[in-house]
């Protein structure tokens, strides 16, 4: 199967924070890969903007190093690299002052798609937005891309939205969540809404429960002071995992249209029940395997911030009433994996004597590693020993099922930046969606802060705190094993 190459329109993309970590690891390598793949017209321009005193050649040297480090060797074509680097330029700019803005104005062309990527701290969003208009660089068709965190609570999220709204309309603002750019996340919508097989079963009558797991092996060492101000709830649940929950639980939109999809996601967030204290487990990883523990990495021996959280969530609507959603995420766990597992109910009546051999039907959507889907079904165990049941997987890894096109799955940032250029907001969060998510999250955080709850310790390299196992066991269920 060969994927189609659909180039975007000619564009000028300004990357504020163009010398930063995100730009070097994701944005520049991702743009190169799309240029290598034929999606970016050669007339397009990419302009780095930051405080560093660099010229165009210095910035291209940085970009060359980023491509060498973060792009696989099979895509590093010397001629393509040189052609791509020729499209890059740099402007030294003062986000809070006047230096560099007149120069930037001469670099951004009229009549092209104009996009401005705010790969900077949220505290600078307002300054950048104001100066883009003050110096008449942006216009009514320009687009801005803003990175998370979108605030740290409802109040700050509203303030951030208000600042951006002073200079840009909602249709111009692209709030990026890289989880929504993953191939499997988008395929979740295709599986649900393009196949009659699943959608009739996608409700509480047939679904016993849903598990969403985002497990990481890395610690917070090196960024502990930042992470300690956020924690797993703010860093992962309020945004990434909330988006996954919405895509699983939402009603079919009337059309695959940005606002239609986001309207349905918003309804899910507003239907979320408050989470009871007994349905929350928080943890902190301990030292082990030659590495320090969370308290050491965050440099605060009295920290009550969680590096792990598990929650039991209910959605009060007709489709999902009575079906629990179990969410868990954490650092320094056994393996790096992200997956969604939809476990279906058992048949109302079994005609087979081998009842103990029965296992649930489970649809597993793997986000990382090895993106793909796996449906576990019951069949007869081969052999002459009677009707014995066994569970087998119907496995679809994208790399195997789609051949060459399956092995060249774009990075999430590549896809999302191309969507910005195309003007497609389907995979980006709307302002009211962000605020609704914080409106649900804030009382949970305020609750454990008022109670003075302390996170439970867990061993590095484990599956998390023991209490998280009990969260499932008391319901007669079990977490899926964390493994790559």
UniProtKB/TrEMBL annotation:
Keyword Nucleotidyltransferase: no
Binding site residues for NADP(+): 51, 148
UniProt-annotated catalytic positions: 240
One GO molecular-function entry: NADP binding
Glucose-6-phosphate dehydrogenase NAD-binding domain location: 14-187
GO annotation, cellular component aspect: cytosol
Sequence ranges assigned to domain Glucose-6-phosphate dehydrogenase C-terminal in this UniProt record: 189-480
Keyword Transmembrane: no
Enzyme class, UniProt record, top EC level: oxidoreductase
GO biological process: glucose metabolic process; pentose-phosphate shunt, oxidative branch
Catalytic reaction(s) noted: D-glucose 6-phosphate + NADP(+) = 6-phospho-D-glucono-1,5-lactone + NADPH + H(+)
E.C. number: 1.1.1.49
Binding of substrate, residues: 178, 182, 216, 235, 331
Pfam families attached to this UniProt entry: G6PD_C, G6PD_N
Pathway the protein takes part in: Carbohydrate degradation; pentose phosphate pathway; D-ribulose 5-phosphate from D-glucose 6-phosphate (oxidative stage): step 1/3
Keywords: Carbohydrate metabolism, Glucose metabolism, NADP, Oxidoreductase, Plasmid
HAMAP family per UniProt: G6PD
Summary of the function given for this chain in its UniProt record: Catalyzes the oxidation of glucose 6-phosphate to 6-phosphogluconolactone.
Similarity-based family: Belongs to the glucose-6-phosphate dehydrogenase family.
Protein's name according to its UniProt entry: Glucose-6-phosphate 1-dehydrogenase
Protein's organism: Pseudorhodobacter turbinis
